[in-house]
Amino acid sequence: MTAQPITDPALRSTLLDRVAFNADGLITAVAQDHATGEVLMLAWMNRAALDETLATGRVCYFSRSRKSLWRKGERSGQVQTLVDARLDCDGDAVLLLVEQKGVACHTGRRTCFYTALRPEGAVELMPPEIAPDVLYGA
Fold first, then answer.
1. pTM of the model
2. Is 112 annotated as a binding residue?
3. Which residue stretches of 9-131 are H helix?
4. Positions in the chain whose pLDDT score sits under 70
């Protein structure tokens, strides 16, 4: 099940006006698997990234390091398809319910949240499913 793209630019603009982007023009975006509830990753979106995501149904983020839009899976093929987008009560975070193709983490793991902080120390909960050099063709 994927979200219907919002093709009306005026409606998307009205929706985006509800978002409380921070001083850098960004909003925190949490990606969660729509079927399992597993939290996959946290990233950032600017207005253009959120607009593109709503318009196309393919999740797009803003890369702070590259200072450009980053379409999830553009290099790795590990695409996220939007199922639903939910703004929090303050309008300063967005929850993206997604259908994840392959792994979400650049380390080759299903989720970026694979390290547990325990009394015995930091514990890796899962090994990579795919080596990063294979994932990115390095």
1. 0.92
2. yes
3. 9-16, 47-56
4. 1, 138
